[in-house]
Amino acid sequence: GVYGEAALEIWDESDSYLAFDDEELLDLIDVCVGFDYFIPVLEIDTRVEYFHQGSGELDKGKYDFDKQLTGEQLVLAQDYLLIYLERGFLDCFSISTTGFVNINDGSLGVVPELSGEPYENIQIGLGAMLFYGPEGSEFDGEYPGFDITEPSVYLRCKLSF
Fold first, then answer.
1. Mean pLDDT over all residues of the chain?
2. In terms of Cα–Cα distance, which of 45, 157, 143 is closest to 97?
3. What's the CA gap between 103 and 108, in Å, rounded?
4. pLDDT band at 15 (very low <50, low <70, confident <90, very high)
5. What mean pLDDT is predicted for residues 52-60?
6. Cβ atoms within 10 Å of 142's Cβ, excluding its own
7. 8, 109, 100, 85: which is closest to 51 by C-alpha?
8. Distance CA 77, CA 52 (A)
9. What is the predicted pLDDT for the residue at 27?
10. How far is CA 161 from the centre of its chain?
């Protein structure tokens, strides 16, 4: 399937009114477009998405990591590409990999995961988050005093009742 969504941000938080000011239209729009496809021979689910974040920066020298640390923005640049691959096995388990690339600075992240639903109400997952990028890039993660993109391993469990 093919899908997409867009959001137009026209609210000026500092003055609490609708405002376009001198903003370029692309700086006010967040857009996500993508497609998913099941590869029958390999039995792999795929998903590819492009994300444009109007409030993001084109130049890595202008990144404001405080926006990320405070939760104002999840990511800092304007353009991203996401690729997701998943293959199921044993009727209740799957292995997947998500890769995302900051198109503006060339940094990337990879999230491999082994997950399963051994019972109807229990979901488990074991994965890792790995990041790479040139110095000063978003997923290089160096912030004065600490690294916000340290490689990590996680275990998650969800019980529904």
1. 87
2. 45
3. 9
4. low
5. 88
6. 14
7. 100
8. 9
9. 77
10. 29
- Written as six digits, the tokens of 124 are 């488990």
**CA count, 13 A, side-chain hemisphere, 116:** 9
- Say which DSSP state 43 is in: T
Q: Which two tokens stand for residue 128?
A: 């890792």
For residue 84, the cross-strand partners are 47, 98
Q: What count of other Cβ atoms lies within 10 Å of the Cβ of residue 88?
A: 15
CA 24 to chain centre: 24
CA 42 → CA 38, 46, 132, 159, distances in Å?
9, 11, 29, 31
- Each residue of 91-131: pLDDT tens digit? 899 999 999 999 999 999 999 999 999 888 999 999 999 99
Q: Taking Cα atoms as reference points, which of 105, 155, 106, 113 lies closest to residue 130?
A: 113
Contacts 24+ apart (CB under 8 A), 39-43: 42/87, 43/87, 43/88
